[in-house]
Amino acid sequence: MLYIVATPIGNLEDISMRALRILGEVDLVLCEDTRNTKKLLDHYDIDTKTMSYHQHSGEGKVKEVIELLRQGKDLALVSDAGTPGISDPGGKLVARVFEEFGDKIQIESVPGPSAVTAALSISGVPTDKFVFMGFPPHKKGRYTFLKKIFESEYPVVVYESKHRIVKFLEELKSMKEDMKVIDDDKIKKKKMNLESIVVCRELSKMHETTYRGDLDNIIDKITASPDDQKGEFVVIIS
Ligand code: SAM
User: Which of 67, 94, 117, 136 is the most exposed place for a label (fewest CB within 10 A)?
Assistant: First the structure.
């Protein structure tokens, strides 16, 4: 059995009872960063052994995991925060395990928090349909990524780090200005779209902050204080 276990995105209390039971029962917990996961396990007095499985884990590590499953071990995969596979390396392992064993190994989800759903839940934007675009690419494909946001019929959710949040918001702003010269009718629509932005910082943590409204105001608020540029961010463009 391979369990894909969601863990908190900040507040250690945000974990299900089932997740705690399974983390205590499995033979091994595969973690993005064993030090991070140890803090969670120690907090709940869980002494299951851990093994690292992260973005840079090569084929050797995948084979090791496959061998453990072949021996009949029960494994749990967790990431540093939230739901494994959502903009982190979990998905790759699930694909490889399925490729290797097909239906012979059961892959079960233990659902819980994810920054995308937490942000949407407090955004106030219509959420019956949305587009999740994860992290913007750093260089190649960045312009296309931004363009797709403008073209989306549905609210778009983007993940961003503290290092790039201001750059990303400023690029949205300049794209908005570029759009003005394209097509008058479209502009009105696009402009309205971009007036409705929600930025969630440090969800479920001590310094949780939500910035809403006009893009210029949000940029002003975030750039006004270095503290507002700290932490993890989700941006919703509606
Ligand atoms: N698997 C995670 C999930 O389910 O949300 C996402 C992992 S991804 C590597 C990390 C990104 O998620 C961060 O850069 C940030 O954009 C977002 N994120 C994670 N925790 C967050 C939090 N507490 N507040 C705001 N954004 C968060």
Answer: 67
Handedness of CA 40, 42, 46, 49 (dihedral sign): positive
Topology (CATH) of 2-110: Cobalt-precorrin-4 Transmethylase; domain 1 (3.40.1010)
pLDDT tens across 148-174, in order?
A: 998 999 999 999 999 999 999 999 998
The superfamily in CATH containing domain 115-237 is Tetrapyrrole methylase, C-terminal domain (3.30.950.10)
pLDDT in tens, 108-132: 999 999 999 999 999 999 999 999 9
Question: What 3-state DSSP class applies to 234?
Answer: strand
Task: Compute the distance between CA of residue 193 and CA of residue 211 in angstroms, rounded to an integer.
Answer: 16
| Residues 14, 23: Cα–Cα separation, whole Å | 14
Ligand 1: which of 9, 56, 158 to mutate, judged by most atoms within 8 Å of the beta carbon? 9
pTM of the prediction?
Answer: 0.93
Query: How close is the Cα of 172 to the center of ligand 1, in Å?
Result: 20
